[in-house]
Amino acid sequence: MSIFDSDAFNDRLFFPRPDASPPPAGASDRMVEVDGARLHVRLHAAPAASGTLLLFHGNGEVVADYDRTAARFVQAGVALAVMDYRGYGRSTGTPALRTLIADARRVAEVIRPRLVMGRSLGGVAAHELYARPTEEMEGVILESALFDLDSLIRRRGLVPPASFTPEERAMFEPATKLALGRLPLLVLHGERDELIAPSEARSAHAAAGAAEADKVLVIVPRRGHNDVSSGDNYWPALAELVAH
Predict the structure, then answer these.
(1) So where are the chain's domains?
(2) What HEC string does the chain produce?
């Protein structure tokens, strides 16, 4: 069995948190049916926006954590939709890395976003959709996202295998997926990120298959893993991709 399908890996990877808070004014909740679960998606209305940005949040987060920042996305020109993984928020089921990737595609097919964004753990969903975008997608954003599988496994306190199988690389390896993509890509990463090193962001940017003019790396000064969005160059870079 693949280490990525093992209980030892997934139990140490995910930190699900229930949350049943109601949507704020101007937002609505939707449940998306996937194989074996119902996933909670919160959509923030923005009639004048150029489209929807579907965000796959970080570990330990839930959709309600983005209620206050939804207005910043609207200011950048997009409406915000956020999905809770299995077991998070009001979503049912048990989280696993393989199902997260599969669920991301199903939700994107329902929400039909113009842009997809993956923050931290959510980067694995964005990698998948970058490699094989849905019809309406025009770009992808990675924020504080992982790139190195060995490092991901070691952060779980486990030992990586000597090598990964072709199936594991095709399913889970960011480098493999990023090389397949051609859409514009924005990589945002904190200069002081001590959880996922900025070198992983640089590797992701280099691996992406988009033309050089269509992929942008923004290292945010004096910011770490969880406060990157407060950096001065974060929102201007995101708005520039929206206007691309």
Answers:
(1) 3-242
(2) CCHHHCHHHHHHHCCCCECCCCCCCCEEEEEEEECCEEEEEEEECCCCCCCEEEEECCCCCCHHHHCCCHHHHHHHCCEEEEECCCCCECCCCCCCHHHHHHHHHHHHHHHCCCEEEEEHHHHHHHHHHHHCCCCCCCEEEEECCCCCHHHHHHHCCCCCCCCCCHHHHHHHCHHHHHHHCCCCEEEEEECCCCCCCHHHHHHHHHHCCCCHHHEEEEEECCCCCCCHHHCCCHHHHHHHHHCC
Q: How many CB atoms lie within 10 A of CB 212?
A: 8
Structure tokens at 61: 């987060």
Place of tokens 């964004």: 117
CB atoms within 10 A of CB 138: 16
Asked if 152 and 182 touch (Cβ cutoff 8 Å), the reply is no
Neighbours of 69 (CB within 10 A): 15
Closest to 180 (Cα-Cα) out of 216, 207, 214, 150: 207
Please state at what angle helix 97-111 crosses helix 123-131, rounded to 10 degrees: 60
9-19 pLDDT per residue, tens: 999 999 999 99
Q: Is the pTM of this model over 0.85?
A: yes
pLDDT, tens digit (0-9, with 9 covering 90-100), for 171-225: 999 999 999 999 999 999 999 999 999 999 999 999 999 999 999 999 999 999 9
- Report, at the CATH architecture level, how domain 3-242 is classified: 3-Layer(aba) Sandwich (3.40)
222 contact partners, CB below 8 Å, separation of at least 6? 191, 192, 231
